[in-house]
Design a protein that fits this description.
This protein is mostly helical. It contains 8 helices and no strands. It has one domain. 31% of the residues are buried.
Length: 222
C-alpha cells in the first residue's frame, strides 16, 4: 500500500472500486463470450426448446449457487455454469427466429447491436456522471416482479399483446438495472464482482430477448 493510500482512505476506496469495476467487466466479457459459444453449440445441435419449467429451475438453481459461493473461487465455476446454461436456452430461440423469419439473421444482429449500444451508453453515462441511482432499487425490484408475473400470464393464456407489453417493460427495467448496478459498483454498494457480473449478464440477456421479440413483431418478414 502506498503512503498516499494509507494517509487518504478515500484513495483506498477508489482503488477498491476500480478493481471491482475492472474485474466485473473482465468477467462479464468472458461470460458473454462463453454464453455465445454455448448458444452456437445449441444452434448447431438444433436442440429443442428447454421449456419454461426447466429454464426456471436451471436458472434459479444456478443463480442460488452462484450467489452462495460468490465469495469463493467456486463462485466462478457456477458463474460460467449459469451463463453457459442460459446460452444453451438461447440457441433454440435464435433458431426459431432464423427459421420463422426470412430476415431472422438481420433481426438477431439488430437486437445484438441494440443491446450493445444501450449497455455502452448507459454504462458510460453512469461512469462519467457518477450519479447515485441507488434510489431505483425498490422500484426496479417491484417492476421486475410484476413484469415476470405478467410474462407468465402471457405464456399461459397466450396473449400476444400482453407479451409485447412485457417485452417493452423489460427493456425499460433492464436499462434501469444497468444504471443501478453500475452505480452500486461506483459508489461501493456492490463490492463483489461475481454478483455484479451475474446481475449485469441477466440484464443484458433479458434486454436482448426483449428487443428481439419486439423487432420480430414489427420488423419480421415471414
Amino acid at each position: 500500500m502506498s503512503l498516499n493510500t494509507a494517509i487518504n482512505p478515500s484513495a483506498s476506496s477508489t482503488l477498491a472500486t476500480n478493481k471491482v469495476l475492472r474485474n466485473t467487466y473482465l468477467l462479464l466479457s468472458m461470460t458473454l463470450f462463453f454464453s455465445a459459444m454455448t448458444a452456437g453449440l445449441s444452434m448447431f445441435l438444433n436442440l429443442p426448446p428447454f421449456g419454461i419449467i426447466v429454464t426456471l429451475v436451471g436458472f434459479y438453481g444456478l443463480m442460488f449457487l452462484t450467489t452462495k459461493y460468490s465469495d469463493r473461487a467456486l463462485g466462478l465455476v457456477f458463474t460460467f455454469a449459469l451463463t453457459g446454461f442460459m446460452g444453451l436456452t438461447l440457441g433454440p430461440i435464435l433458431n426459431m427466429y432464423i427459421s420463422h423469419f426470412s430476415n431472422g439473421h438481420e433481426l438477431i444482429i439488430m437486437a445484438l447491436s441494440g443491446t450493445g449500444a444501450i449497455f455502452l451508453g448507459l454504462s458510460a453515462y453512469a461512469l462519467t456522471t457518477r450519479k447515485d441511482f441507488s434510489f431505483m432499487g425498490g422500484f426496479l425490484l417491484t417492476g421486475v416482479l410484476v413484469a415476470f408475473l405478467a410474462g407468465i400470464g402471457a405464456i399461459v393464456f397466450a396473449i400476444p399483446a400482453l407479451s409485447l407489453a412485457v417485452s417493452a417493460m423489460f427493456i425499460l427495467l433492464m436499462s434501469g438495472m444497468i444504471l443501478y448496478q453500475t452505480s452500486e459498483i461506483i459508489h461501493g454498494g456492490e463490492t463483489n464482482y461475481i454478483r455484479a457480473t451475474v446481475s449485469l449478464y441477466v440484464s443484458l440477456y433479458n434486454l436482448f430477448l426483449s428487443l428481439l421479440q419486439i423487432l420480430g413483431v414489427f420488423g419480421g418478414r415471414e
